[in-house]
Design brief:
It is a single chain. The radius of gyration is 17 Å and the shape is globular. The chain contains 4 helices and 12 strands, in the order E-H-E-E-H-E-E-E-E-H-H-E-E-E-E-E. It is an alpha+beta fold and 238 residues long. The protein binds biotin.
Length: 238
Amino acid sequence: MKHFHFETITSTNDYCKQNYLNLPSLCYVTATHQTQGRGRNQRVWIDQPHNVLALSILIKNPSLPFEQYSMLIALSMVQILKKLAIDASIKWPNDVLINYKKVSGILLEGSHLENQSYIVIGIGVNVNNVEFAPEIQHKATSIFLQSKHTYDIQKIAKMLVKQFYKNIKKSRHHFADLLLLYKQSSCVLNQTIQFEYQNQLETGKVMDILQDGSLIIQTDKKQLNINYGEITLLNYYS
Ligand code: BTN
């Protein structure tokens, strides 16, 4: 697997998108310092050189649906944390939490044009952060804060990419097994959640997570099948 590392870059996701034609599929890009790191919903991803892993993986002509890559990268993160003896969970669809605090966020971007079909899977992982700004310290954590060990950021990157590639390979014939692992790692499955749906505040129990990544939620009046982006979960940090 080809790896490109930059000391400083605008955003590893942007680099993959801008250089899509020249980069090989399945390569990964890391940076010590991102000057324009982006999160979901137009949020800024705060740059923390030497503490945070900024990584993007480029997949050209993807064979899996977008949502499955999203599930597989979150699951891969949980699996490598487990190897480090850290118990983590997934807040649907792809935030990784330790003790209900966010350790890793994922931003998937892609193009589905016929002659330009790709997915960029961007992941930010709080690795060695010792503290967080007061406004986020109740909802953010790092691998260091949970394990009291500092880690080589590039080693974490390698472990994660390796686990992700292994999962992609396995998913071709055994996605159901990976879905089961994803569900076992989910902190929303079988839980009663509060969410915003079509501008309404709703409460319901998450009954299942399907192969396409959607949630089955039972409210007291109806059963909903919800796709990513259609709801905001209110009783978890994001
Ligand atoms: C989120 O939780 O909102 C997603 C955060 C994703 C951040 C990563 S860091 C590497 C890649 N490059 C970016 O600009 N964003 C993603």
